[in-house]
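Dear H.,

Thanks for agreeing to be a second pair of eyes. The structure we're designing against is below in token form, covering all 63 positions.
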């Protein structure tokens, strides 16, 4: 069975300005990527343009 049923193989087409690699080797999405995606995932992303506060669970719109 060569078909991947996990859904993880369906990666979006990422452009170089959409992410960078952290020193630990993780992919870090940029603010530009989050804006292109169009919504807040509420994961407390480092470059969240929507102002999500992971401690309070609230989205505080940035001005």
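And this is the sequence the design step returned. I haven't edited it by hand at all.
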């Amino acid at each position: 069975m060569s078909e991947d049923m996990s859904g993880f193989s369906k990666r979006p087409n990422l452009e170089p300005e959409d992410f960078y690699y952290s020193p630990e080797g993780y992919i870090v999405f940029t603010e530009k990527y989050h804006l292109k995606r169009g919504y807040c995932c509420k994961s407390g992303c480092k470059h969240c343009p929507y102002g999500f506060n992971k401690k309070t669970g609230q989205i505080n719109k940035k001005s």
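Two observations from my side: The longest helix spans residues 31-37. Residues 19 and 25 are 12 Å apart (CA to CA).

Warmly,
E.
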